[in-house]
Design goal:
With 267 residues, the chain is mainly alpha-helical. It has a single domain, classed as Arp2/3 complex 21 kDa subunit ARPC3. Helix content is 70%, strand content 3%. Strand 1 and strand 2 form a beta hairpin. Helix 2 runs antiparallel to helix 3 and helix 2 crosses helix 6. The protein is globular and about 65 Å long.
């Protein structure tokens, strides 16, 4: 059944950008039109990711400088369709476009590096839940478990990285880490807690501020990905021969070929 199938299995070879190297089940080279279609798809996903990153931002009330945005959805869709190559292209392209159009958020480009790192953590989490633990092929319950683990992994990792070097770098104005007492003092001062010191207080403040923000963002991205890809795009690819051919043709051909061979064997 469709619900029991794993959308993330729709991965193409890593060289899908290169015309002529991908072959159909009959050994024929794919047309340049199919390659162009796939290039246009990742380009459109990158453009959509830029729009979401640059304009669809929701301020986080406890910390107005933090923005909840959903551009990682396009990166996850690119990964589900085209693997690591497509996801990396979309992540770098949308971040680069935002940097070129809106400029850096800080002199050290920490904001855009953080955005890129977040996108890659989303992809890593989806890879682990889909291809290592295979939870997406075990039904809706395991798929929900996968999203919960994805949200927790990305949220905890990004919160820890914020405390380790991202926030200290922002506050210090130069690359530094939380292991510098002056950096911790600058962070606490920037957060309105001047004079408060101690590693426990520092990390409690960091987790209390960033963890809820990251959980809201990751949960929103997972929900949008489930609705847009698993419940819409994947269903269309299942039902449309044209979409099968131009977007995930190699995988569907292998599946259809194996089904034909199985039927012949039964006969």
């Amino acid at each position: 059944m469709l619900k029991d199938r794993i959308p993330e299995a729709l991965l193409l070879p890593r060289d899908f950008f290169v015309p002529g190297r991908e072959r159909t089940k009959n050994g024929m080279r794919r047309s340049s039109g199919e390659v162009v279609t796939r290039l246009c798809t990742v380009a459109l996903l990158a453009a959509l990711g830029f729009v979401l990153m640059a304009f669809a931002r929701i301020p986080y009330p406890p910390a107005p400088w933090l923005m909840i945005e959903f551009s990682e959805v396009t990166v996850l869709i690119a990964y589900a369709l085209y693997g690591w190559g497509g996801a990396l292209f979309v992540a770098v392209a949308k971040t680069g476009l935002d940097l070129a159009v809106n400029g850096p958020t800080d002199p050290l480009f920490v904001g855009h590096l953080t955005a890129l790192l977040t996108s890659l953590l989303f992809v890593l989490s989806l890879f682990l839940t889909a291809h290592v633990f295979h939870w997406f092929r075990k039904g809706l319950g395991y798929r929900i478990l996968a999203y919960v683990c994805l949200a927790l992994f990305v949220s905890l990792t990004m919160t820890a990285l914020n405390g380790l070097f991202i926030t200290p770098t922002y506050a210090e104005g130069s690359y530094t880490t939380c292991f510098s007492p002056s950096s911790i003092a600058n962070v606490m001062k920037a957060l309105g807690k001047e004079g408060v010191s101690g590693a426990g207080v520092y990390w409690g403040t960091i987790f209390g501020l960033y963890l809820p923000f990251n959980l809201i963002k990751t949960s929103s991205v997972c929900l949008l990905y489930e609705v847009l890809f698993n419940a819409l795009i994947f269903v269309l690819m299942e039902r449309s021969p044209k979409m099968k051919k131009y977007f995930v043709g190699s995988v569907f051909e292998k599946e259809s070929g194996s089904k034909e061979e199985t039927e012949k064997t039964k006969r």
